[in-house]
Amino acid sequence: MREKKPTLFKRAQRAEQNGNRETRDLWERFGGHRQRVTAEILALAPGGNDATGGRLCLLGAGNANDLDLEALAARFDEVHLVDIDPGALSHATGRQAPAVRAKLRSHAPVDLSGLYHQLDRRTPQPSAEAMVAAGTAEVIRQLPSELDVVASCCVLSQMSWALEHLASPDGTPVPTLEQALLRIHLRAILRTIRSTGAALLVSDLTSSLFYPSLDDLAPGEDLRALTQKLAAQRTAYTVCNPELVHMILRHDAELAATCLPPALGEPWLWTGPKALTYLVYPFVLRRNG
Questions:
Q1: Buried-most residue among 4, 46, 132, 167 (CB within 10 A)?
Q2: Distances (CA, A) of 43 to 92, 110, 139, 210
Q3: Whose CA is closest to 116, among 182, 166, 179?
Q4: What is the pLDDT of residues 243-270, one digit of tens each?
Q5: Predicted confidence band at 2 (pLDDT cuts at 50, 70, 90)?
Q6: Segment 61-108, tens digit of pLDDT
């Protein structure tokens, strides 16, 4: 009997598991990136610098090499870790001190794309609107609610890679899927936060594989201007392009009604897996009213 082909979800999960195994021991290499991501999250914590408490959710936490879980657990009452790879979360939590582990809540395996299971079905694919509605509902079902801060940790580019390289939808163009992915992700993170909460979208705009000049930037390079230039030139991972994020926020009816204009933070450079240099930027999203 012919062996059944693994589902898209399983293939995406295996790809992430392989990637997490390859980067598991790169804690030191993630140092500067980890400091920046953690600082961006702490800056959004409720009550200001001297307060403690609140609920935090980290999407795409993986091995947590890009997250200082000790510092985050010291600030928040609950830290929810969400990923498609249960083994990576187990490794990340297992290396923490007991006091930190007591505040961690793991959620895995979770399909944050909202699309893998839909694309696995053999029936004709629904309209983009139907896919976004169903995908958002599926993601929300697997996440905690009433969060003070939710942070998306460079997970969009990973899910987009799976859609481009692993999915075989029946004639559905990849750009359509990428826009659906981004709409689902933005809707989900905004729905899970409190009315006074904040969502942090940390995105790797591009890498030195596609823009080699990242390895040769002059000291003091204006990374904000470079981010805007590469976004305009489309030298970026599509779902991570801030121009596309702005467009989706304007044209998706739910997002246009519920999201304030995003605030672009200060970008940074990070030498990550495979010794590539990444240009990373943070977006802060808040609900309207």
A1: 132
A2: 23, 27, 26, 31
A3: 166
A4: 999 999 999 999 999 999 988 899 999 9
A5: low
A6: 999 999 999 999 999 999 999 999 999 999 999 999 999 999 999 999
Which two tokens mark 112?
A: 């944050």
**What is the token pair recorded at 98?**
């007991």
Looking at this protein, which amino acid is placed at residue 56? L
